[in-house]
Amino acid sequence: AKDGRVMFEGDVERESKELEDEEQLPNTEGTAAERCVAGLTLAKETMEQGHVAASLNMTEAALRRAYKEGSKEDEELLKVLAEGHLIAGTVRQRMGAWDAALVHLKTAIENFPDAVAANPAFYYGAGASYAVLGNLKDALHMFSMCSVIVNESEELYAGYPWLRLVLPINIGQTLLRMGRATEALDNLRSAFEEAKTVDEEMMALARPAILYYVALSRAALEQHDEACETWGEWEGTHSTVEEQLLETNWRERWRQHYVRSLVLAAGGKPRGSPEWRATMDRGAEQARLLTEEFGGLGRAWWMRADCLSSLGDAEGALECYRKVMTAADAPDGGFPDVRYQTGQCLLQLG
Fold it and tell me: Which Gene3D superfamilies match (predicted)?
């Protein structure tokens, strides 16, 4: 026991490590706030050198020391503590520790309202953590609070143009995940309007994300022709996006969604009509491009095979279905449904 508390072995080890981290902090003279600032400054410098874990340990150690030494009546200390929690939360997010990040950000939101009101990053970070963790209701609340803070302050409105642009996207994406596609579409349209107030470079970066979620919203509302049109617009924007937005899974998902929307749009037209044929041809072409770019994926070949089968090209479909069964992502034993489709193609070919 220590100080009236029962200490288990893990607690003792943790407390020992925490004290060791605090000993690494600058032992400067001054108030608790000044000493905390010195610790946070060293943590930032450590981060800039690429030592993420060490920087996090220093940040959290500086916070612990400040809580021990300071007073809740010290307004300067409260500002510093809020900043420290924001830094720690941001670093935790970079490390993928979304739960731990949320603890820091919620601590700041609940205990330092003045600091939080002056910086939208607290609510935005909390919203991002909730979204990743799947708590969509709280994510939406945090993003909405962030939007209120930014829009109610002329200083913040002018100082955070990028945030003004991405917030409607985040809110729209969250609403879409909650099944509220109509509201999502409204927010995404407001993102387009907001984009007119920022510079062209920011718009070029944000436009693909806006179009992506607009198309998903329209697909969810079964507006398949409109969704196809928007997926097509996306194709014209991706060349202007930074490399980080051109991750393989982003492009793969886009092409798959595009093919799916074209097939569904064709389904709303009289089968065999010129409109049906033109839409299915577009679907088959997008599916071909999908297999060219992601030829190792069975689902890519499957989508292409289904398009060719619908168009009556049994031979082309058969070749694609066979590639599905040997694809890298095929389960042991292959896909039973694909074996059935392969049999259908063989029957058609006599």
Answer: Tetratricopeptide repeat domain
Instruction: Name all domains of the chain by residue range, CATH numbers in brackets.
Output: 1-97 (no CATH), 272-350 (1.25.40.10)
| Two structure tokens written together for 275 | 């409109």
Q: What token pair was written down for 121?
A: 């990053």
List, for residues 21-52, the tens digit of each pLDDT value: 666 777 778 898 898 899 899 888 988 888 88
pTM: 0.81
Instruction: Kindly compute the dihedral angle of the four CA atoms of residues 143, 129, 61, 42, in this order, to the nearest 10 degrees.
Output: -70
- Residue 2 sits at φ, ψ, to 5 deg, of -145, 125
Q: What is the tens place of the pLDDT at every residue in 171-191?
A: 999 999 999 999 999 989 888
**Cα–Cα distance measured from residue 283 to residue 156, given in angstroms and rounded to the nearest whole number:** 45
What is the chain's Cα-based Rg? Answer: 27
Alpha-carbon distances, residue 95 vs 24, 56, 181, 278, 292 (angstroms): 22, 10, 32, 48, 34
Q: Which of 53-62, 83-92, 238-247 tops mean pLDDT?
A: 83-92
